[in-house]
Amino acid sequence: MTLLNKLFVPVRLHVRRVIRLISPLDFITRRFIRNNRRDLGASSLCLDIGAGTSPFKHQLIDAFSICHYVSVDLTPSRELDLVCDARSLPLRSAVADLVVSFDVLQHLPDAEIALDEIARVLKPGGSALVVTPFAYGECDVRDYTRYTVDGILARLSARGLERDAVEKRGGGLFVFACFLTWRIQHLVPGQRRTWRSEKNLSDFARVGFVTLFTMPFHLLGWICLLLDSIAGYNKSGLYMGSIVLVTKTRPETTN
């Protein structure tokens, strides 16, 4: 790694953490985790699939009383505990009490296999928290699919993961605010390069530009989120994405 990248990566990570703190989209996820808190018991294990920088690690540990948190991703970084493909987890079956996946499935050309793996490694009675986009622009790097609430719930139910709690991420006005933020992020070429790739001076300039000019749109997002809630638009068929919490059904016992 070059000296420039050694300086750039920590700075960008800190910038990403600040943006996540002020992002209404991340607030929705943090609130959902907090509102669905439960004690998963002693020695509980949480697998964060496609964890990246593990933005919700501390909220998950606190809300679900996690003893062992394992971050999983395909690309090596100092933030990760396990480097592997989400479609082939090197873990035995029924080992995890909680499996989480935050905006990951859309990046997989065969996400159904990743869902199979989530169901496989989850203990009976364990929980899975899955976040997916719906009405949102094409994501960075690779983007293959979108899910409605019913669509993702049907795929999870087919694997013995039954609905526990569901929340749509905003309504129509929030979708508009998210689109404007997405548009600003893509004004300067280079957005579709992964944040872990080698960087140069133009990348420094790009990050600074995007951070500065997206701030007002994060504020707009908060306003739109509030208006959606007041007007009831967050119950409509137009929403940015969804968060679902499901539980793996326990096998029936026979006498």
How does the SSE layout of this entry go?
Blueprint: H1 3-22, H2 24-35, E1 45-49, H3 57-64, E2 68-73, E3 82-83, E4 96-102, H4 111-121, E5 122-133, H5 149-157, E6 161-168, H6 172-185, H7 201-231, E7 241-248
Parallel strand pairs: 1-2, 1-4, 2-3, 4-5
Antiparallel strand pairs: 5-7, 6-7
Structure description:
This protein is of the alpha/beta class. It has seven helices and seven strands. Helix 1 (3-22) packs parallel to helix 7 and helix 6 runs antiparallel to helix 7 (201-231). The longest helix is centred in the last third of the chain and has 31 residues, at 201-231. The radius of gyration is 19 Å and the shape is globular. The model has no long low-confidence stretch (mean pLDDT 86).
